[in-house]
From TrEMBL:
One of its GO terms (cellular component) is cytosol. Residues 107-134 form a coiled coil. It comes from the Bacteria. SMART domains: OmpH. This is Periplasmic chaperone for outer membrane proteins Skp. The keyword Transit peptide does not apply. GO terms for biological process: protein stabilization. Belongs to the Skp family. Keywords: Coiled coil, Signal. Residues 1-20 form the signal peptide. It comes from Pedobacter nutrimenti.
C-alpha cells in the first residue's frame, strides 16, 4: 500500500468548479493573495488567481504530518503482514520436512489446515489493504476540506472570483503572470491556521 500520492492530493487544491459554484450560491468569492513580495501585489480587480499545488503540498505542514502518519500506518501494516507471512512459511517448511514420515490421513489433514491458513492470510492482507485505502481516502477528504474552507474565506476577503490550481506537467494553465500566483500567502495562512489548531 503506497502512502499518500501528490497526484491524488493535488485535487485538494483543484477548486475551480467548487469555488465557482460557491460564489454563485453564496455570493462568496474565491481565495487567493500575493505570492512573492518581489512580484506585483494581486489587487481585487484581478479576480482570478492561482495556487501551485506542488508547492502547497510540499510546504503545508498538515500535509507533511498527514504523510508521516500514513507512512507509519503503512509500515505497521506491512510489519504485521510480514510477521504473519513468515510464521506461515515456517509452518509450511516444517510440514514439508515431516510430510514423508506422516501417515496419509495426517498429511491430508495438515495440508487442508495449511490451505485454510493460506486463504485466511490472503483475506487478511486484502482487508488490511482496504482499510489503509479507506484511511487514505478519509485523510485526503479532510485535506481537501481544510484547503477549500481556507480558500473560500480568503477569496471572499480578497475579492477573488476564482482560484485555479497549477501543477507542473499536469495543468490546464499554460501561462500565468507571476503576480497572480498566491501560493506563498495561501501556504502561510494554512500553516498559521494549522499551528493554532494544534495548540
Amino acid at each position: 500500500m503506497n502512502t499518500l500520492k501528490l497526484g491524488g492530493l493535488a485535487t485538494a487544491v483543484a477548486l475551480v468548479s467548487v469555488m465557482a459554484s460557491c460564489s454563485n450560491k453564496e455570493g462568496a468569492t474565491n481565495t487567493a493573495t500575493t505570492a512573492k513580495t518581489e512580484t506585483a501585489a494581486v489587487a481585487g480587480k484581478d479576480q482570478i488567481v492561482y495556487v501551485n499545488s506542488d508547492s502547497l503540498l510540499t510546504k503545508y505542514q498538515y500535509f507533511k504530518d498527514l504523510q508521516a502518519k500514513m507512512e507509519t500506518k503503512t509500515k505497521a501494516a506491512q510489519g504485521d503482514m510480514g510477521a504473519k507471512t513468515q510464521a506461515f512459511q515456517r509452518e509450511v517448511a516444517q510440514y514439508q520436512q515431516q510430510q514423508n514420515t506422516l501417515p496419509a490421513d495426517q498429511r491430508a489433514a495438515t495440508e487442508q489446515r495449511l490451505a485454510r491458513k493460506q486463504q485466511e492470510l490472503q483475506a487478511y492482507q486484502q482487508n488490511a489493504g482496504s482499510a489503509l485505502q479507506r484511511d487514505q481516502a478519509a485523510e485526503q477528504e479532510k485535506l481537501y476540506d481544510k484547503v477549500a474552507d481556507y480558500l473560500k474565506v480568503y477569496a471572499k476577503k480578497k475579492g477573488f472570483k476564482m482560484v485555479l490550481t497549477y501543477s507542473k506537467g499536469n495543468s490546464a494553465i499554460l501561462f500565468a503572470d507571476e503576480s497572480l500566483d498566491v501560493t506563498s500567502e495561501v501556504i502561510k495562512g494554512l500553516n498559521e491556521g494549522y499551528k493554532a489548531e494544534k495548540k
